[in-house]
Amino acid sequence: MKILIAADLYWPTLNGVATASRSLAKGLAARGHEVVVIAPSQVGKKHRERDGDYLIERTTSLPFPFYQNFRISLTPQREIKKIISKFQPDVIHIQMVMGIGRATLQTGSKLDVPIVSTNHAMPENLLDNIRMLAPFAKPINTMLESYGARFHSSADYVTTPTQSAIDMFAHKMKDMEVPVEAVSNGIDLSVFSPDTPSQKLYTKYRLPTDRPVLLYVGRLDAEKHLSVLIQAAAKVIQKIDAHLLIVGQGNERSRLGELARGLGIEHKITFTGKVSNEDLPQIYRIGTVFCMPSPAELQSIVMLEAMATGSPVVAVNAGALAELCHDGKNGYLFKYDDDSMMAAAIVKILTNPKLRAKMLKESLAIAKTHDINYTLDRFEAIYKKLIKDKKAN
Fold it and tell me: Are 314 and 292 in contact (CB under 8 A)?
């Protein structure tokens, strides 16, 4: 099949949408499909590049002011029309509803190409980073949800990473006449697996080897609620000699550092910034417990990756996290922004080796159900059916 993937956020940008979209593109190309990805240029000007077995068409872009290292294409209609007309895809898969997604939907619909649209977005991911809009959050959320529902209604098939995501937006999706299905983003279990971490990594990032490590991986932006994690870590450290490892970058880095200093635990925290793809699986293996305070997750690929390495998890009971963190089985859920409850859950896991070992095994079992090969199988089946149905009509 000739498959076009449209992604407003894409590698080397680091976030869930970018990671899921690239995994899909690489996986489909590895299976012999001809894949083209349309994504924003990382240098501003349009160009094309190869990423292994597939082509990336980069569209003209501008910096997005509310996130570090994000770029967006505001009016890519003409560029996208040329790309699609030249490639002549059998099917289009749209990953976001912004400029590239919108222009691809319009062009693909006119050319009568089957379109799959995946909803990765929660309005909170944007609004928490634009504090001036906080007083208007509720009506803006409603407006963005309505826009998303209208957008996805124009596709031939809609997917979300989790059933929870479908349930969250059921009030907006109930009138949609297109099929809606939960398909996991998936992870590569050949990369993320249990193993002994390299000692070189401890030296490289100046990490202690004689105490448990609380781990977070992801963006350091407002909607991730990382202040809750740091406050919880301070409470844990009062009882257990532990270390907090925060991997990633974002607009909140300075503020989080100030919070750690104010709590007197700055010497107990390591901020790595961005890490390489080679280091990341090893870093997951260093973590004793993976911690996710972010309430705006439609799946959380990073938590899945941590689980695949054998980590128990502690996560806020919000978004779709309860589908991965089975309370009392592979970790614990805590109430929204409740750092005391989060700290108590972490302490419970750290002080009970038998419980930790049991939760480790359960995390592995859950992660196995999200193998990227299942995801690729399902999307291939969806694409083939849409192509067949389109030809029949």
Answer: yes
Q: In 10 A of CB 210, how many CB atoms?
A: 6
141 close to 171: Cβ distance less than 8 angstroms: no
C-alpha to C-alpha distance for 118 and 180, rounded to whole angstroms: 9
pTM exceeding the 0.70 threshold for the entire prediction: yes
pLDDT tens sequence across 26-76: 999 999 999 999 999 999 999 999 999 999 999 999 988 766 668 889 889
| Three-state DSSP string of 333-388 | EECCCCHHHHHHHHHHHHCCHHHHHHHHHHHHHHHHCCEHHHHHHHHHHHHHHHHH
User: Cis bond leading into 194, ω under 30°?
Assistant: no
pLDDT of residue 64: 80
76: its two tokens: 């890519």
| Coil, helix or strand at residue 280 | helix
Contact at 8 Å (CB) between 332 and 338?
Answer: no
Handedness of CA 58, 63, 67, 73 (dihedral sign): negative
Running DSSP on this structure, what letter comes out for residue 196?
Answer: P
Residue 34 carries which DSSP code? E
Q: Which residues of the chain have pLDDT under 50?
A: 127-137, 139-140
78/168 Cα distance (integer angstroms): 35
pLDDT in tens, 106-119: 999 999 999 999 99
Crossing angle (nearest 10°) for helices 226-239 and 253-263: 30
pLDDT of residue 137: 43
